[in-house]
Amino acid sequence: MSALRTITLSLLLPLLLGASAAHAAEQDNSDASGVLQRISSFTDRATSLAIEAMSLVGIHYRRGGNSPEHGLDCSGLVRYVFKQSNDIDLPRTSVEMSRVGEQVDKKDLQPGDLVFFNTLRRTFSHVGIYLGDNKFIHAPTPGSAVRIESMDLNYWKARFNGARRVLESETNESSRR
Length: 177
Hints:
Layout: H1 3-25, H2 32-54, E1 66-67, E2 71-72, H3 74-86, H4 94-97, E3 102-104, E4 114-117, E5 126-132, E6 135-138, E7 147-150, H5 154-159, E8 160-165, H6 168-176
Antiparallel strand pairs: 1-2, 3-8, 4-5, 4-8, 5-6, 6-7
Helix pairs in contact: 1-2, 2-3
């Protein structure tokens, strides 16, 4: 494991485990093994997504970009991260991504969820990956690079459109069609 991935994991693990513990506390104690299995699955998936995404911080923005070597736009970043970390094929555009998975309320966000914003005077024109603690990673605009930002900033608060939780079974089914 690279040094960057090790550092990233050590920074994210307490955050991810905190979200998982809160989720587990709401579950019925009679199904403890099932809950532990779901927690493990969630934390593994979310950790993998977060590590892959954070390894791309600093990659330059390129409209239509699909790879770190040539640059990434917002949806290119999200597609690349989901494919590399969990072998999940997502649609190309943020609008198409906004139809995948299940809708999530802002108060119920978990690391790995997709967060959408209206940045071009149209809904779902921008997408990022939620990291926890009201932070998300995205490829913002031409002339910039992949970075982590707070959703507490007024700019993002005013433009938040919604969130989706990608369901592996749904994306794998749709990619086989």
